[in-house]
DNA sequence: CTGAAAGCGCTTACAG
DNA sequence: CTGAAAGCGCTTACAG
């Protein structure tokens, strides 16, 4: 009888026990209004007695739709991604009777991206897709729509898909305004390479807004005071040393992310520059690290963004709502000790 | 034809196209040696032409075993957990033809723990379970073994299950030896409540080893210099203030985790105590934060622990290896600026 | 309101 | 070496 590994009781066992058909058991399990109360009770009793638990795999196959949600994230350990994911996790586990399972895909190299998208989309093990911070191609959207697979973007903007984003250009402006108000005029920037293998654009958007705001104030973002590198701490530190090694170093630096800002701080320390006396530093994101080191930063609601994106996805899955809405989240400057 | 949402081609479509039976297609897909080469080629061609992709759900149902691995973690955002998870993720995606999917369960409250275990174990959507940092009950192990569900523990010790752990008692000793070598004699401790709803014991184990080593050196861990609270930063800060508010405050503090050590550092700052001049601080874990703030700490290989645990689980799943081995990882003290 | 039957897309003894 | 058939555990028109 028990073939593979000790499978538990099935719907048929319950049916037998309750003296009804499997169809009826299924109806009770799915809260169909068709079943009369006494029958329901018998079925429920049988379920309890047998310790029956529904096989989600069979259900998925029969229904043609999964109860899991696929989440694709880059660099699983980035603080901002984790913070977003936390919002997603919190939301997902709260939904529906038993919530959605969360299938996690980490993309550590550009090539893995395509694999993840295809795996998740085509194998129909997933009721929807949440794509975090990874630019998506039109061909991929075509594929998703062909499969009628709901998808939501988080921290990525594409006109054809619902998305939760932030106005990065505006964020750059806020950073500029803050530094300007502090009286700085020789201001530097440390961010990602304008072009990168993933197609990330946040850093560039922030820099553009930053530069534009400086110009509007009669100042400018001197190309000589800009440095670009990988989005990590070490690299930001190196770039900062080079910036501070100049004959007339900047008196303030805007880093495209908090992680990079931490690198900037290290660079300042290494070069013997006091923060904020010699050079002020402002980051972007407001990850937990920012508070810990006392970093002034542009806060974006990371956790909330995950919650909102999850909500959008659930709406798309359960109610078929998939207008490509754009939810733009609020940015605020959080002043701490580095400016 | 296409009923639910545009399902892709099935094995039958491929069979028709290749002029063979579905059974043969299945065999080719599963690399059965039974199929002769010319047939294989035809099937492969059909697969390509149709863009066929196997339905993992159907396969799981038919085989009675899943291709996903369930990972249960507490407090998804704790740095140490994330770091471990990263190792798991890296390992899982590398295995087999297409690797294992990762089903993530976050336990934010003790009650969720049971739900997660049951959901994952019973619904047989998962080929194995990786339990991180969460103590497991005998009844749960019984259930797992009844279902023949492979399970591996990470940062938890139970004699009946394979596990990857660290010797926390020894870690405490290392911390004591380090502080003693620095000439400290009035030494405090900040850690978790000895009893907590999750049953975590790391903090207590570390404290015990710490106290024992002090005594062995003719010193002792004065109960008046111990403080217990939740495993978070804010609480550790509050506890530290109380410790430093004493008439004869400790000259060194061992925190049960880096996160708590950061709180200790904040507490020192708030009380105007210089680190390490007035009070030395040592943590435990060596999460990324530790390096960033220059914290001296007891390093445990977090990422590697995830990799090892994943390896054990895969071995259990694929080769049926499930002797309850215990892999004990190396601890080292990393001296930075706080001692 | 309930049941018998077909179907979801695979796999795998069992024949041949 | 290959195919027909039964089965994995559900769901849901279709009858009654």
Automatic annotation (TrEMBL), chains A, B:
<dbReference type="InterPro" id="IPR028082">
    <property type="entry name" value="Peripla_BP_I"/>
</dbReference>
<feature type="domain" description="HTH lacI-type">
    <location>
        <begin position="9"/>
        <end position="63"/>
    </location>
</feature>
<protein>
    <submittedName>
        <fullName>LacI family transcriptional regulator</fullName>
    </submittedName>
</protein>
<keyword id="KW-0238">DNA-binding</keyword>
<keyword id="KW-0804">Transcription</keyword>
<dbReference type="Pfam" id="PF00356">
    <property type="entry name" value="LacI"/>
</dbReference>
<dbReference type="InterPro" id="IPR000843">
    <property type="entry name" value="HTH_LacI"/>
</dbReference>
<dbReference type="InterPro" id="IPR010982">
    <property type="entry name" value="Lambda_DNA-bd_dom_sf"/>
</dbReference>
<dbReference type="Pfam" id="PF13377">
    <property type="entry name" value="Peripla_BP_3"/>
</dbReference>
<keyword id="KW-0805">Transcription regulation</keyword>
<dbReference type="InterPro" id="IPR046335">
    <property type="entry name" value="LacI/GalR-like_sensor"/>
</dbReference>
